[in-house]
Amino acid sequence: MSAPSAAPTAAQATDTGAGTTPATATAATSAATGTATPAHSAPPSRRMVAIIVLIPIIAALALWAFAWPNARTAPRDLPLGVAGPATATAQVEQQLQQHEGAFEIHRYADEAAARDAIEARTVYGAVVVTQAGPKLLTASAASPMVAQLLQQAVTQQAAAEGVQVETTDVVAAPANDPRGSAFGSSVLPLALAGTVSGAAVTLFGLRRGRAAGALVGAAVLVGIVATTIADSWLGVLGGNWWAEAGVLSLATLAVGATVAGCAALLGRAGIGLGGLLVVFLGNPFAGAATAPQMLPEPVGTLGQLLPPGAGASLLRSVSFFDGAAALAPTLVLTAWATFGLAAVLLGHLLKRHPKPTERATTEPAPDPAPAH
Length: 372
Known about the structure:
Elements: H1 3-6, H2 10-18, H3 22-33, H4 44-71, E1 78-83, H5 86-97, E2 103-108, H6 111-119, E3 125-130, E4 133-138, H7 144-160, E5 166-169, H8 181-185, H9 187-203, H10 208-233, H11 241-266, H12 269-282, H13 299-304, H14 307-320, H15 327-350, H16 356-362
Parallel strand pairs: 1-2, 1-3, 4-5
Antiparallel strand pairs: 3-4
Helix pairs in contact: 9-10, 9-11, 9-12, 9-14, 10-11, 10-15, 11-12, 11-14, 11-15, 14-15
């Protein structure tokens, strides 16, 4: 008796479908099935314009980040020692201060104290005043560019006065990398390796413990492989092998955990944010091929607070200076790694979960019971 009224007739269904647009029908189907249909918020023409405008902006930012620091390379408060009696060093200090803002003068009693300061990475070099004439102490392992700059600045001034300057390289760069080009080139590959590991963890859908385990395991292997190449094969590092591997692993973990942590908190957009911090800012601001004090401010300081710059400084300390001045970069890398791993492990707790009432309103209504 009630069966004919339980379902619409074919004519009614036809009339209803005729008055329904495809978009409305699709939305109705999605609502009935509880699935979302993929859609773009902007028409294709606007997306095309967005790409045309966005790519040049990205290129301009990349050129600014990579080319601008190199185009403005110059000493800025570069730590430099002056050793000898105060009366004898007064003239040297006055000559160095003529380079306004270039050097930060540190005074030492004698050559031994100046050497200790160089080996402790307190200064990049020192001018020692002796009875035989001025003597220049450098450390090309700290920065070949800075060592060359100091030699030019000191010897040219002395040559104008007809004085010969003896130069001694207290901590020399490796014979296989006298210009530091291989050392400086190591920053970008490690930054890319860390970025890829963080992105892969996110895109492969790893969560919490598995994600953290993948990040740590990949970082350890990257450190071992990188040390094998840079130390054992190329010979551009000269410190304890396992200490160098630990530094490279920590630097890679800091980058990978940062990228994965940003993605855990912000979704896939976090991958872009992490890549921006590490590749677009951290790498060119690291100062690995020159020195942080050779970059324009605040780039030099900012670079040491990001994983690539801190990693390069820590690797230099461990490889050439027996771990001197290693505390600050170690803390920076540890902080980034801790932040990233904590976000990966606990980030899901910060995400908003729908309340029971919200879930009830979003769930599709059950199908009506068939009439008898």
